[in-house]
Design brief:
CATH architecture of the largest domain: 3-Layer(aba) Sandwich
Helix content: 40-55%
CATH class of the largest domain: Alpha Beta
Number of strands: 12
Oligomer: single chain
Order of helices and strands: EHHEHHEHEHEHEEHEEHEHEEHHH
Distance between the termini: 26 Å
Shape: elongated
Radius of gyration: 21 Å
Number of domains: 2
Structural class: alpha/beta
Largest sheet: 6 strands, parallel
Strand content: 5-15%
CATH superfamily of the largest domain: Glycogen Phosphorylase B
Length: 354
């Protein structure tokens, strides 16, 4: 196609321009996984940012069927020999469209394919016939793909999520820190956090924001305890300093089958801070033994006890923080993440030729 990418590989992701524009004015910021993937694969990037610049039909499709479907159509129309898609809401319609084109391979990250709508679409459209590889962040998603959707084992691989360990680093002179920090919006259980610490003198800073999550803010329209400060609009450096200065980072989660909360978990661990986290089924695969204190979901007394114990015992907190930092460096760096995806894509491409 004359207006195609001219690249063998295409990385299709949720957003590019808005994220990069937000980071452009910052003095220092973490590397972005989609940028590093595009470099490693020598790939063209395509995202929601490109939809408004598409054809009239693409823009109409975005209004009628949603941006994910419009992005899938745009990727199909532009052309490419291998697509890596970072979310299944775009990968599923793109896989269907690729039934009408030969010699093309698609790989994707399956964040949460267990939802009824997604699993029905995958079965109905028989999308896995077009998928060369699927990467999952949790064993539950991996098992569902194999056992419920019948995806061949060689097409499914579980990998760890990532953190830019070159940006998220401990303070030059780490200390016990002060107070509690909680970051993120996706399926956070902030009401339980508030209940756990409301009548203590522990200062709590909450950053209930996310560039990706569409979930409602669990801190809005409710009474905020006097010891809780809501933060927003932080730069990357300010966020890192918030982690570094915390006595404890809490990741309070609802119980779901995918790893909501994994970004803030790994960022806090990479910054060398002790973490208390809810035992959501989807996050357990991301936790190494001794690298965090795990409490039951929705259990305010258990959360309170864990936080106060770590604050009162700096040596225990430091040991957990050290194990968390080592865990992040050993298995979950951005470079490792990019290398695993690149390896998976190359292998899927090679299988498609046989």
């Amino acid at each position: 196609m004359s207006d195609g990418f001219g690249k063998r590989f295409v990385v299709v992701t949720a957003e590019v321009e808005a994220v990069l524009n937000r980071l452009k004015g910052e003095t220092e910021s973490p590397r972005q996984d989609f940028v590093e993937l595009a470099k490693a694969l020598d790939a063209q990037l395509l995202s929601f940012s490109d939809v408004p610049r598409g054809s009239a039909f693409t823009r109409l499709l975005a209004k009628g069927a949603g941006k994910a479907v419009a992005l899938a159509w745009l990727a199909f129309w532009k052309g490419g020999n291998f697509y890596f898609v970072t979310a299944e809401n775009t990968a599923i319609p793109l896989a269907f469209l690729l039934k009408f084109r030969r010699g093309v391979t698609l790989a994707l990250i399956g964040h949460r394919i267990t939802t009824p709508q997604k699993s029905r679409l995958l079965r109905l459209l028989r999308s896995f016939n077009q998928i060369g590889a699927m990467l999952c962040y949790s064993r539950q998603q991996e098992r569902f793909a194999q056992e419920q959707l019948g995806v061949p084992p060689e097409k499914v691989r579980r990998i760890a999520f990532q953190v830019d360990e070159k940006f998220f680093t401990p303070a030059a002179q780490p200390g016990p820190g002060r107070g509690v920090v909680a970051v993120g919006r996706e399926l956070r259980d902030y009401p339980t956090l508030f209940q756990a610490l409301a009548d203590t003198d522990v200062p709590v800073s909450v950053v209930a924001s996310s560039p990706w999550s569409k979930r409602s803010d669990q801190t809005s329209d409710r009474q905020i305890p006097a010891n809780v400060t809501l933060r927003k609009g932080l730069s990357s450096v300010e966020l890192r300093e918030l982690y570094r200065n915390a006595a404890v980072v809490v990741v309070p989660l609802m119980n779901v089958d995918w790893p909501a909360g994994v970004t803030s978990l790994f960022e806090a661990q990479a910054c060398g801070r002790p973490v208390v986290i809810s035992a959501s089924a989807g996050i357990l695969d991301s936790l190494d033994e001794g690298a965090a204190v795990i409490v039951p979901c929705g259990d305010a007394p258990a959360l309170r006890a864990a936080v106060l114990r770590l604050i009162a015992n700096p040596a225990e907190a430091a040991a957990i923080a050290a194990k968390g930092r080592a865990s992040a460096l050993q298995e979950r760096t951005l470079d490792q993440f990019v290398a695993r995806i690149t390896e998976t894509c190359r292998a899927a491409e090679a299988r498609s030729r046989t």
